[in-house]
Amino acid sequence: MLVLVCYDVSTETRAGRRRLRRVAKVCESTGQRVQKSVFECQLDVAQFEALERELLAEIDAQQDCLRLYRIPGTRGFEVLEHGAFKAVDFDGPLVL
């Protein structure tokens, strides 16, 4: 399956800059960079789970955002979201 990995790591502190480098290293070892913080990876289920575990071990969920888009050929489109950023639910009710 194709997996898109997108991240936004807070770099305001030295620790944040270290986290950013470690997250990038994990992604570089698994897939190809398509933007500064976006990688495409061709993975099977076990590789995906291992990548997710590695990345979750590196980020700070209170400050950083990690999004993993799984795009399997037969299962449809699924987004797993971790961290501070919360996406808008476009299928939810519209409140004005």
TrEMBL record:
**Signal peptide (from-to):** none
Q: Where does Mg(2+) bind?
A: D8
Q: What biological-process terms (Gene Ontology) are attached? A: defense response to virus; maintenance of CRISPR repeat elements
Name its co-factor(s). Mg(2+)
Q: Which UniProt keywords apply?
A: Antiviral defense, Endonuclease, Hydrolase, Magnesium, Metal-binding, Nuclease
CDD domains hit by this protein: Cas2_I_II_III
Q: What is its EC number?
A: 3.1.-.-
Q: What terms describe the molecular function in GO for this protein? A: hydrolase activity; metal ion binding; RNA endonuclease activity
Entries under Pfam families matching the protein: CRISPR_Cas2
> InterPro entries this protein is in?
CRISPR_associated_Cas2, Virulence_VapD/CRISPR_Cas2
Q: Subunit info? A: Homodimer, forms a heterotetramer with a Cas1 homodimer.
Matching entries from PANTHER family are given as:
CRISPR-ASSOCIATED ENDORIBONUCLEASE CAS2, CRISPR-ASSOCIATED ENDORIBONUCLEASE CAS2 3
Protein function: CRISPR (clustered regularly interspaced short palindromic repeat), is an adaptive immune system that provides protection against mobile genetic elements (viruses, transposable elements and conjugative plasmids). CRISPR clusters contain sequences complementary to antecedent mobile elements and target invading nucleic acids. CRISPR clusters are transcribed and processed into CRISPR RNA (crRNA). Functions as a ssRNA-specific endoribonuclease. Involved in the integration of spacer DNA into the CRISPR cassette.
| HAMAP family listed in its UniProt record | Cas2 (MF_01471)
Describe the family membership recorded for this protein in Swiss-Prot or TrEMBL: Belongs to the CRISPR-associated endoribonuclease Cas2 protein family.
Descriptive protein name: CRISPR-associated endoribonuclease Cas2
Gene name tied to this protein: cas2
